[in-house]
Amino acid sequence: MESMSAFNISLQQGDICLSETDAIVNAANSSLLGGGGVDGAIHAAAGPALLAMCEGIPLLDGIRCPVGQARITGSGNLKCRYIIHTVGPIYSSDSESAGLLQAAYQNSLLLALANNCRSVALPAVSCGVYAYPAAKAAALTLATCSRPEFRDLKLEFYLFDETMMLIWSRALAELKAVLV
Ligand code: APR
Prior knowledge:
By secondary structure, the protein is α/β, with parallel strands linked by helices. The protein is 38% helix and 17% strand. Helix 3 packs parallel to helix 4 and helix 4 (134-145) crosses helix 5 (162-179).
């Protein structure tokens, strides 16, 4: 049986804007016009050029990016080449939200691959304002991002505080235990 190549996922505690990966994933909202949290931080660091690029993304029925989908732009003043904007679900229930959170990460990584990225920095999408329970999100996200089709990517998750770092570290250890 062909051996499963190991996935390349690491965790960092800190500001995703400092990442030097090829792409940074943004936890946006459907307007792609910025907001608070990591969205606000990325727009502030990238500068007004990022907003202009987002405004250039066509609206479909008044929406630039539906929940679970992703859009790619340049990065303005940031060191990375691309910013991949994805919209996670506002948590309501596992049955309603899990598939959308998986899709947000899956579509972000597919866009990264399609644009020849080799490394991607990702935040804990939906785990702030959108109130996704962090432990559930961590397990689901890491299972999605460790799938074989994404194993050529170097993935760096940026967790913004110690609590989240601990939760994601536990989830990563559990995933490795299962996959070994
Ligand atoms: N770097 C890394 N992670 C960060 C940063 C940062 N600079 N700032 C915040 N975070 C963390 C939060 O602590 C949280 O764990 O990112 C995670 C996602 O939280 P939010 O940014 O609130 O994103 P989300 O829950 O997906 O809500 C998206 O919030 O900011 C608005 O416009 C955005 O409407 C959208 C909604």
